[in-house]
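Thread: sanity check for a docking pose with pyridoxal-5'-phosphate

Original post by kr_44:
Hi all, I'm comparing my docking run against an independent structure prediction. Below are the sequence and the ligand SMILES. Could someone generate the full complex and paste the structure tokens? I mainly care about where the ligand ends up relative to the chain.
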Amino acid sequence: MGESVPMSPSTVARAEIVVDLAAVRHNVATLRRAVDPDGSGAVRMMTVVKADGYGHGMVEVAAAAREAGAEWLGVATIDEAMALRAAGDTGRVLCWLTVPGERYADPVAADVDVTASTVPGLDEIADAARRLQRPARVQLKIDTGLSRGGATAADWPGLVAAAARLEQEGLVRVTGIWSHFACSDEPDHPANDAQEAAFRQALEVAEAAGLRPEVRHLANSAGALLRPSSRFDLVRCGLASYGLDPAPGHTADLGLVPAMTARATLALTKPVAAGAGVSYGHTWIAPQPTTVGLVPVGYGDGVPRHASNTAETWVGGKRRPVRGRICMDQLVVDLEGDQARAGDEVVLFGTGRDGEPTAQDWAEACGTISYEIVTRIGGRFARRHVHPDRGDE
Ligand SMILES: *Cc1c(COP(=O)(O)O)cnc(C)c1O
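Reply from moderator J.T.:
Ran it for you. Here is the predicted complex with pyridoxal-5'-phosphate included:
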């Protein structure tokens, strides 16, 4: 770089998402201890990094999770799995969302585990293995009650038998059997017991057909934390790895740290008079004279418009409510007459450590879940990964 001018440390970011990878490593390590308290290795960890690592950056989060000991990474699509391989990840990776006609040759050649829920899907995978002269690593998925992906109980024996035949032919290796909860964030919901029982039954059918999978797995973050009996050989933790609570009101405080902070710089501040309407539609009218601040992000950047008039931000060490509608590029916050100035930092959400709002607070403000807040934010936010524990802020 020689002659390049270093960026001034005072260069402000209009809007940026800062992802603390030390927090990710801490969370993954904490979750590993929580699900495998005696450290026997009986319960392995899959960190789920689909959807660009829930908005945190798939490749960066994947590397952090590996450092913290995640034996597996989980993604939805083959493209995501291949992106992990292209970034140099050589560990176990499972993907689970495919359509007929998918290019199975790529994951089979790259030693990625793929998921089959139907016999035609399994046959497509076997065809790729035959052409490549290399056995495919296949996990079979049973629908135990979510009624989303997975084989029905009626189709399960046929799927298992087909997989056993293909295994004998050397075309596939059935590496896993798995399912997914519908209500794990409600630990007392009767569906949890029913799904776990159905899963155990499906495992017996598979075992009777001669399948000996490396991993049997059912639990996502909430299941892993709240239902020890659902841990089997592996847990698939997404949300909790990012430091967010998968079952607010139910989970014990494990000291997980939210990894994402969404921050911006105040573009402008100004007084508004009592009676002035703020933002489109004048859905908020100042009841008394106040000062407002213009935050240069909006729904075009994934800031939910549903948070209009409900969410809070953090400026100058205080909570500052969003006033009026969130626009495509901007939103307005109430500084309540304080001396905040253009150029000051606005935190939309962060760790909550100093009192700033969290992604969970934003989720509650707009009637959704924190998954959606962190996964959808992006747009024109810059994204920066930091390792504060390595002196890199
Ligand atoms: C997204 C996903 C997970 C992770 O769920 P969290 O609730 O974020 O832990 C686990 N398994 C499957 C099949 C998923 O699609």
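The longest strand covers residues 172-178. Hope that helps with the comparison, let us know if your pose agrees.
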